[in-house]
Amino acid sequence: MQHVLKALVLTSLAPLATATAVLANPVCMEAAEMEAALIDWYGETPVAGAWAADQQLWASEATGTWTLMELGSDDRACVLSQGENWSASDDPIVAFERILREKGDAAPRSALAFLDLLTSDAS
Which residues are the signal sequence here (predicted)? Predict the structure, then answer.
């Protein structure tokens, strides 16, 4: 009976594991297409002063969304991380840090690494 129950649980969780793996893969496309998508779909624009090591933060005060993307040498861009709760701030780095701090342990590692790059460049 335990084997049947274990098989049932594993079978029911398999689609979730697959969905998580698919979502974990970065979305990549031509940089111009990525920029157009961020502007058209989310109303996002590049955040002033939030550029480091070929990574750029985009955000929208209107929708409250943000996207961290990386620009490759092959003129492609990949989404490293994205989220919500963006709000206007005099200092976008402070705003981004606030969002990540609120996420705590759930903050995306790529976003935390980007924040480290921004703050180390600022010093």
Answer: 1-24
